[in-house]
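Deliverable D5.2: sample structural annotation.
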Amino acid sequence: MAVFSQATNDSIMFKNISDEIFMNGKAYSNLRFLCKKVGSRLSGSTGAAKAVEETARMLREAGADTVFLQPCMVPHWVRGEKEVGKAMLNDGKVMPLNIVSLGNAVGTPSAGITAQVVEVKNFKELEALAPDAVKGKIVFYNFRMDPRHINTFKAYGEAGAYRGQGPSRAASMGAVGVIVRTLSPVLDDNPHTGATRYDEDKPKIPAVAISTNGAVELSNAIASGKVKNIYFKTNCQMLPDEPSFNVVGEIRGSEFPDEIITVGGHLDSWDLAEGAHDDGTGCVQSIEIIRVMKALGIKPKRTIRAVMFMNEENGLRGGTAYAEAAKKENKKFIMAMESDAGGFTPRGFGFTMHPSQKEKLLSWKPLFHPYTATEFTEGGGGADIGPLRALGTAMIGLNPDSQRYMDLHHAKTDVFEAVSERELNLGAVVMANMVYLISQYGL
């Protein structure tokens, strides 16, 4: 009788998982439903509430042993009517501005705001200005995402400071409004939203993003002395917090049920589009892990939980609630994996864990070579699973190819049609394979 090594048996199981997902997978059809029948799912909205119901159904249909809702209170920010922006030129002409409100921003007065504009490329330029150069004006942060970074998330992190901190830093110098160049590496006409964060000890001023093409056009007009002033009107507001839920589907471990493996994505999405890549893909990939385990009759030794986290985009209330509940469960949350970088071709995993766990993880790397997920890098996890790190939980983030993600991140173009079924399924395959290994052998 032939004796198979552990690696050979694991390789066979990897192939079985891959075949099942590619032949019978439900991730793509679940994503279609989430995007087309539910749509945008900003926390506190009716879309978010419907998404809770529908993903709970998907988990039940996938065969989860238990499906439950985990309550959390979430922010309820609404955009209101479409934003209007324009630059009044010295020759009497008007240049339309393609803008959207930043998430969590306050709205303008009902008449909008009109003011002169001051352009800066970065915070250093802002701070070098005299107070009179900023007071009563609109600050235009024209910070370009650095295209030299091969990993676009690094460029996004640099540019994100202007969306997140920009309004409060301008307000501290007396500005009455802020325009931020969209966080995207491509030149197009799609402004991207995303959350800003106000400092409570500073005035809250209206803040919008402008498309990258619009930013270039506005910058050129300012440089040539054509712009007299800027007008924009937004209608957003923050309403009282709303009750919502994380959605959790579980397969109970056969030998170590109190050792918990968490895998998930965030269910909420911005309101401009369908939240396909951000983060519908991570949600349906996590549901697919439950389905493939059940379809193949795999009985994991450790408990697997697929979690649809609520409110990652503008509050992180779901991730915080999950970690708070975990502290009270008296169980060991051994690993958490997140998919929140789009449904593109998986390149590998980033991980944050103890050195002995890293050594074990790296020993599995050859198994992933046939599935293109060969980049195992230190430093990884995700926003929603991050609060679990305080419990000693090992963190893993799925790292898909990042080249196209920022083109549509938080923009109206993040729709179902932008997702490749094959790339989506391959991501689910490598996630399921990693979860399988940890469920069988621990970390």
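Annotation notes: The first helix runs from residue 6 to 24. The two ends are 31 Å apart (CA to CA).
The annotation will be released with the project's public dataset once the embargo ends.
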